Amino acid sequence: MIGGLATKVATTAGAGYFPIAPGTVGAAAGVAVWWGARALGAGLAAEVAVAAAVLVVGAWAAGETERRTGITDPGIVVIDEVLGQLVTLLAAPWTWQAALAGFLLFRVFDIVKPPPGRQLERAHGGWGIMLDDLAAGVYAAAVVQAAVWWWPEWFA
């Protein structure tokens, strides 16, 4: 384990060190952050502000961790999954169904990386680490919103 504030942020307080599927663990942490923000009564504007802060701080932390490890997009960096989940669930209803759908859809889009995800991943340093997950979150959010529109009773 490497130390420092950047690594703590990049690994989402150590979630990135989970030995099996750390990205999935990071995504689950993102759902927990979203759920907690909703429980505190954060509105859409506050959630957007949190996501923006995670993007900027996460890009710094991911870039620093990449530099310290000497590994491009190190597997321990999972703050990008937190961002992706926050974006996925921004306007979703506060239900377990939305959380589950958002979690699964984000993981699919994060793994598949449809355009421009793969291209954004090539951006320099921490921005590349963060931006492909931002794109996956936007795709997943669109599908979640469409599902909520088509099947509102399932998300109630």
Report what the structure shows.
The chain has 156 residues and is mainly alpha-helical. The chain has one domain (5-12, 22-150). The protein is built from seven helices and no strands. The chain has helices at residues 5-10, 22-39, 44-69, 79-88, 96-112, 117-120, 125-150. Helix 3 packs antiparallel against helix 7 (125-150). The longest helix has 26 residues, at 44-69. The radius of gyration is 15 Å and the shape is globular. The termini are far apart.
Report the helical percentage: 55-70%
Beta strand count: 0
The radius of gyration computed from the alpha-carbon positions, rounded to a whole number of angstroms, is 15 Å
Q: What is the count of structural domains?
A: 1
Q: What key attributes describe this structure?
A:
mainly alpha; 69% helix; 0% strand
Produce a short descriptive summary.
The chain is an all-alpha fold and 156 residues long. It has helices spanning 5-10, 22-39, 44-69, 79-88, 96-112, 117-120, 125-150. The chain has one domain (5-12, 22-150).
List the helices and strands and how they pair.
Elements: H1 5-10, H2 22-39, H3 44-69, H4 79-88, H5 96-112, H6 117-120, H7 125-150
Helix pairs in contact: 2-4, 2-5, 3-4, 3-7, 4-5, 4-7, 5-7
